[in-house]
Give the backbone structure.
Amino acid sequence: MAYSRYCHYGQSSQDIPSACTTLGKPDIPREVKTKSKTRGVPQVEEPKQIAETPEVSSLTVTAIQLSKSPYAALRCMFPSTLEEHQKSVDWTSSVNSMNRARFTARNGEETIARFENRNGEGSINFHRPHPDPTIDLVMLQAMGWRMNKWLDRVRETLVLAKKSEKAGA
């Protein structure tokens, strides 16, 4: 009686079907799987139809005319020069600048200040920095980003008022 090392002890390879001779796995024909390449092959994208955008003239952006100091304080929220990137602003001058930019400041819970637009277009909350009342450059840029996101206030809406015109009215 010949023993196969792939079969159970005490059974010969003649007594066991041929499926046992290949490590206990039956002889099943396997399907060859093919994997498609996902890298290195350019994918063809279908052309997307571009939705018609309104004309630039139909978009109304209200320019806010400010005097020199509120203008400089609010421009730090939307910096474009290296000097504006490095400035920090005092909290009281920031609140006064927002007041000149047609926002009403109201104290909220604890250190929250709520700035409501006088035109009824919306409001935004900012936290008053403490214990030092100075708004650093990172916080200023975050405030500008939030104003842009929620109130559509960008750098181009701030305009320096001419000396003959009354600013903030």
About this structure: The longest helix spans residues 137-151.
